[in-house]
Amino acid sequence: MRIPEQVKRLAIVIGVLVALTLVARFVLIPRSLTSTSLHWSLTTQRESAKPVKFAGSTACQDCHDDIAAKKAKSFHRVLACEGCHAPSVKHAEDPSAAKPVIPRDRTTCARCHAYDPSRPTGFPQINLTTHNPLKSCSTCHNPHDPVPPKVPKECAACHAQIERTKAVSSHALLTCTTCHKAPERHKTAPRTALPSKPDSREFCATCHGQGRAGTPKEAPKVDIATHGARNLCWECHYPHLPEGRP
Ligand code: HEC
Ligand code: HEC
Ligand code: HEC
Ligand code: HEC
Ligand code: HEC
Ligand code: HEC
Ligand code: HEC
Ligand code: HEC
After folding, report:
1. pTM for the model
2. Quick one: pLDDT at residue 130?
């Protein structure tokens, strides 16, 4: 049986293509592009030549065992030190040569705790603009053992709105009765026995007055004689959210 002419020509074309492909594959393309083992060893060399930046999650506990032990029992036990303090291998090798970053800004914590509907339900999240605005998170939460402080809720049953507002303010930790003397009867028959309310600038000065003895250290101070002198303090600061909105 005769092979048709066109099939022979086609066979020649295919033969030439196969030959060219083999030449290209084994002669023209360098081995470094085709050999996986060469590729592997070159990449490993390149990557391991880069300077190491992370000391690793166990390096810090040698010297900071108190903090490491505290964190190991806390809500933050799964977090690496350098996740917040930035890569710190220089510091771990020689503490006096470099200091790690201390992330006091709110954005570090917001990375994980700012409200985001895609986070799992039950993960502790906050609204960044209303949750104690303008304050560093670590003034109220120890970053190495973050327990939400206990907010007094003694009057929340009837004054829930005020209680919730205050819980996210810098007055979060003050009890209602620091500022309102509430008779026991107010809790059962509220309108027959109203609590007291602060009635003078002097009241707030007991904690915020500059140069006064016995004021709490954490309370920021103002000069009572000049600061907003012609008005009562709560004409400018809502006492249940004194810092106002940013
Ligand atoms: C070889 C011991 C050693 C190791 C390892 C070490 N530190 Fe330190 N660290 C120190 C010393 C010493 C200080 C200085 C304390 C001081 O000045 O009061 C310090 C201070 C710090 C500070 C405070 C810096 C400042 O500005 O006050 C931070 C934060 C810190 N270390 C984080 C880390 C982290 C994170 C690691 C792990 C990657 C680590 N350290 C590993 C010894 C060490
Ligand atoms: C969730 C973030 C976070 C993690 C995780 C974290 N830190 Fe901190 N760390 C902070 C913040 C914020 C401060 C500053 C606290 C303040 O305002 O006083 C701080 C302060 C420090 C300080 C200096 C002040 C002090 O308290 O003595 C050291 C030292 C330190 N951290 C070490 C560590 C070590 C070691 C680890 C891991 C075992 C670690 N941190 C894990 C956020 C973190
Ligand atoms: C890398 C992510 C991450 C960062 C950054 C981070 N946290 Fe957390 N935080 C967590 C995880 C995970 C938990 C534990 C959640 C759980 O148990 O469901 C937690 C728990 C908490 C809780 C306990 C809430 C509760 O359920 O009672 C507080 C408060 C908290 N973090 C505050 C902070 C503060 C303040 C900072 C910044 C200094 C911070 N976190 C930074 C991941 C993070
Ligand atoms: C002035 C004090 C204060 C500051 C500043 C503060 N918090 Fe809080 N935080 C609280 C109090 C009080 C609670 C508990 C509120 C409650 O029980 O209603 C709380 C609760 C939380 C919780 C738990 C929420 C939950 O649903 O379980 C997280 C997470 C948290 N704060 C993170 C942060 C972060 C992140 C920052 C900084 C951006 C911050 N906090 C700043 C006082 C503060
Ligand atoms: C059983 C519900 C209830 C409880 C519990 C309660 N209150 Fe009240 N409170 C009321 C009602 C109702 C009024 C409003 C009275 C009115 O408007 O005439 C009120 C009014 C007030 C006022 C305003 C008084 C005024 O002169 O305007 C203050 C301050 C106050 N409560 C503080 C507190 C404090 C502090 C507590 C917790 C120790 C508390 N209350 C617990 C129901 C309650
Ligand atoms: C730092 C002091 C302070 C604390 C803490 C405080 N209050 Fe007040 N409260 C005031 C002042 C000041 C006023 C306003 C007095 C005025 O307007 O004459 C006020 C007013 C009120 C009023 C009257 C209605 C209103 O909103 O003005 C109620 C009700 C009240 N407070 C309840 C509470 C409850 C409940 C708590 C605790 C969750 C609380 N307060 C905590 C200082 C405080
Ligand atoms: C028992 C003490 C106490 C009393 C009384 C008190 N405060 Fe405060 N106040 C504090 C503390 C403590 C803080 C700061 C909390 C923190 O930073 O963690 C604060 C914070 C503030 C701030 C926020 C400052 C800022 O920018 O962060 C203002 C404003 C303020 N108070 C106003 C008042 C006014 C107005 C009164 C009177 C109605 C008052 N306070 C009564 C303890 C007190
Ligand atoms: C006329 C309005 C006005 C009055 C009245 C007023 N304040 Fe202020 N206060 C402000 C403003 C605005 C700020 C923020 C700007 C600043 O720091 O001066 C402020 C800031 C503050 C701060 C924060 C200071 C800091 O360093 O963070 C405190 C605390 C404070 N006031 C307490 C008081 C007390 C207590 C009274 C009553 C004795 C009072 N204020 C009366 C307007 C007022």
Report:
1. 0.80
2. 83
